[in-house]
Write a structure and sequence with these properties.
heterodimer; A: 331 residues; Multidrug efflux transporter AcrB transmembrane fold; Alpha-Beta Plaits; 2 domains; 10 helices; B: 508 residues; alpha+beta; 16 helices; 20 strands; 53% helix; elongated
Amino acid sequence: MNNKRSRFFPLFLAISAVIIIAGILLYAFIGFNTSPDRPAAYTLEVKYGVVIGNDADQQEKVRELAESSMEKHGIVFSEGVTAPVVDGDSLAETTDTILSYELAASSDEAALKAVVEEINAMEEYRGARVYASYHHLEELRYFEAEWRAAVALAVAAIVALGYVTIRFGVSCGVAGLAVMAHDVLLSLSILAVARIPVYAFAPAVYAGVAALVSVVLWLVVCMRLREKFKSEEYASMNAGDVVRSVMDGALLPVCLTAAVFAAVVCVLGLVGVVGTMGVVLPALVSVAVPVYSTLLIAPNIVVPLKRMFDKRKEAKKGGYAAVKKGAQKSE
Amino acid sequence: MSKIKSALALALITVVLLGLCFMCTVSFSYGTDNMYTFNSVISMMEKDSLLGGGLADGVNYVGGGYSAVFYPEGVISAQEYEDNLEELETASAEAAADKKDEAEKAVKEYKEKYTASESGSLYFETETVMEDGEISEEFGEKLSAACELMRSRLEQYRIEGARIDLRDGYTIEMYLPRLSGGQAVAFGYFSAMGEFTMAYGADEDSAQPLQLKTGETVRDYVKGARAMTNGTTSFVAISFTKKGRSTVAGWTSGAAETNGNLYFYVGERAVVSLPVSEAIDQSTLYISGSYTDDTARAVAVTIDTALKGTAPELTLTLGQATRLGASLGDLALPLLYAAFGVLFVGMMIFFFIRYRMLGFVQLYTFLIYFFPMVLCVWAVPMLHLGYETALAVLFGAALLSISQVMVYETAKKEFALGKNITVVVKTAYKKTFWHIFDLHIAVALLAVVTFLISLAELRVFALALTLAAVFSGLCALAVGRFLWAALMTFARNKGKFCNFRSEVQEDE
């Protein structure tokens, strides 16, 4: 086993443990940073009817007035979105339109009142006027999806690693399970501790991504481990040496595989999503953590397990040989 | 494989892929005055609330969602207050001299009837909502119970991207993504407050409600409700207790002679109105009709939560509803497609540089993986286009690419030993078969179990990943090998075709 890798194993474990504990505590008390979802926010709504709705210049005037007024009062606002008002029963469009802006939860109410007054004082256009109002929104969260996600990933990990156990042996299966649990928990904990902004639904998906990358990377290592353990070379080596040589060789394939996943999330986040920070950073964490654990933590788990199972095997063989010898003697 | 067979196979695959490419990506209008439109599969795909896009007809829009604000009894919007006041004031100004006092009194009374909220966006009816100049405790409790009931209904409705907010402290705003369908039904039923009950009669006015004896509740008659779908028909299934079954059987015993209606109410809203023409004597009543999967679930959730939860005595009125586009803006969808394009180009550059003409094998293999995935996202009801689906499709493509690289690198090493290319391909697939198989099976197992247990976006991600793992596995193990064999028949120098070098030849 690589001396550094095993020497620093307690340190790696301690780092993970500290982050995971901190993450669990933070999640329990304040949850994830779901600011992209605006769990608490203000909105400014400007409603106008068909007379203004049919005149692009007037609409632009309304927009300019609203935005200049907010700027004047130091209110930070998102890009204005126009939405047609619909009938609640049929969802058919009415003649009214609402121009709305999302504002930070920290917006000053006095300033908002002033903005509303300024917009409402806008001169009538062909007998039509605009109507502005601001509103405070507070999300009512529900959690069923979150606990179901935790159960789903736990069961899925056991099933997937059950397959790994059948194909690659108990030591690989158990180590893989430990690593996957570590990866999912550590990825989510980093999101919670570093207060990385995520959509409220996203942590479950990022946990899924971490589990997926974890199982893929661990399989890359397992394939090499099996080849090595099956080779004649292994007979003259101990488990630690085999794992070390495999891990040295697996460094490049593991990193390249992770790089493919990282490239996918980076491009998707940087090109495909306007609010890049909400996707790239957390997804990169979910890819990077399995690389760390596959290269630095998993080998230290698989070696003692392999030794233990090899000893058991030998003991069984020994026991069987002794029984066979005894039987031959008695004959 | 002979050259003719290869050429035919490749031509056929190319035509199919071109057809799929056209079907999936091109939208256009045709006919006199462009009366008809052909919408591509990608444009017709359901999009989640973050994404959205218009169809080729320029009228219909897929994605985004609807938002509705519910006002509790005794609370009105500032606009409604001002409009009403303006109307009264105009009437007062225009009133004849003998009716002037009366009109002015009406204005004064209206002003006294309401108190403005701190923000000025709401007005409270003093008699109903206020107590000693403040919002009454009773109203606050009723509102909290109503919020909790609507929250639990939305939670049980299980639609990705749905959201509920407390607006201005005293109104409730609900957002439902368009992909759910049946938003109007959900808005109407989820805001129904009050006790669950049932009645039977010729019409709603004359229907006799269920008479509960002392100590009884409606749960002694009705166990619960759930939604079911059989093929294309959706049902609401209402389960009765023995007592409930005999009550309904008694009510409907004469239905064969005199038709009646069975009503199920939540508060004052009839959520189910069932015409009865024969006696009903069943422990579970299956009601179909015009329900879709979503509307059936909305009705079942409304009944079930009213039956099992609290029943706040608060009437909610839908005040304002809006139709919203993609929450991430109109550019979100084109940018997502651009991301796919960038990754595709990046992948192809890598394969063409490293493996030369084998890049064509990867191109065909990838397209054979990609288009069925697109069709699945369009056709499978549980799937829709969102970031989680995109991530799953791209991860599947990543698995496919990794598998192909594993095969090609193994083949490269084998070729370097001086082996014949046919032997090289065989050996490479033989050596990597179990690696690729294990990789895909483990991912598929992980995804399928997650799909079976999880909810919302993770469920969509897991389902898309399951399909991606299956298609990627098939493409990597079967399609890729076939295409390699077919394309290589046209190469004179096989090693050059694949950018492989034989060390033995070089030594010689």
